[in-house]
Design goal:
The protein is an alpha+beta fold and 269 residues long. The protein has one domain: outer membrane lipoprotein receptor (LolB), chain A (Clam), CATH 2.50.20. It has 4 helices and 16 strands.
């Protein structure tokens, strides 16, 4: 039987916990309103031009095992995306393209070519998380998906972790999205965003870190983590290179089936 804990030991433990926690930080500038924070969120999602990102992507496979893949992701706001997944010995093993409306997917190993609408379900065939193309383009730029319809919004401040501006968006069905910005030096880096359904359950969570100045002066993350509890999906992206790509025509965000390979309709729910 363990020895009883004395009141002195309890006080000492409480003091130790208090000593480990940094004091809350006061906002060192005039408070932004919710509209300003929402505009910043939209601005972050729309990095001008074409952005090329080379990354290591780590996701949970169908059997629960972790899968690590090198990917090249080329994005153009608001919703154009091209993704190439590379094999361990080099060469593309899968390609995905969308202009935000149509979707094509080439599975080199499985010898399949799929085409259909650019639904979140179809996009998840390669990137695992079920998000719209515009949401993924926003994520690559260091932003976050946001509610399509906002009925109310509020701004607040969290003095922990060096100071966080907090934007809360509410939708017509009772859903709620909370976005946290790094307020230091008024950088407005989106460090975390989370969407909860009307029942309070987390639908997705995004965390960005290691922000640095990228092409054109845009601040871009060095890592991004995406979790989607309803699907049991989580993806970790570690960027190895970010650069502006030459302006591309719309054809760069479309795939054609290789000769002799039939086009299969991409239908999923």
């Amino acid at each position: 039987m363990p020895a009883p804990v004395s009141p002195r030991q309890l006080v000492a433990a409480a003091l130790l916990l208090c000593a480990c926690r940094p004091p809350p930080v006061a906002r060192p500038y005039p408070p932004p309103d919710a509209a300003e924070l929402l505009a910043r969120l939209d601005h972050q999602a729309s990095v001008p031009g074409v952005l090329r990102s080379d990354a290591k992507v780590d996701y949970r496979g169908d059997g629960g095992e972790r899968v690590k893949v090198r990917m090249t992701l080329v994005s153009r706001a608001p919703a154009a995306l091209r993704v190439e997944a590379q094999g361990p010995l080099g060469g593309s093993v899968a390609s995905l393209a969308t202009d935000g409306r149509d979707f094509q997917f080439l599975d080199v190993r499985g010898n399949h070519f799929l085409a259909g609408p650019a639904s979140a379900c179809n996009i998840s065939r390669l990137l695992r998380v079920e998000l719209r193309p515009a949401d993924l383009v926003a994520l690559l730029a260091g932003g976050a998906p946001r509610l399509a319809e906002v009925t109310s919004m509020t701004a607040g401040w969290d003095g922990a972790d060096g100071g966080r501006e907090v934007l809360t968006l509410r939708g017509p069905a009772g859903e709620q999205e909370v976005v946290r910005f790094d307020g230091r030096e008024r950088r407005w880096d989106v460090v975390q965003a989370e969407l909860r359904g009307p029942d309070g359950a987390v639908l997705w969570r995004v965390e960005h870190g290691d922000f640095a100045e990228g092409p054109g002066g845009a601040r871009l993350p060095g890592r991004s983590d995406i979790v989607q509890p309803p699907r049991g999906a989580d993806v970790r992206v570690r960027y190895k290179g970010r650069e502006s790509a030459p302006e591309l025509t719309d054809s760069a965000f479309r795939l054609d089936a290789p000769p002799g390979l039939p086009v299969e309709p991409a239908t999923c729910n």
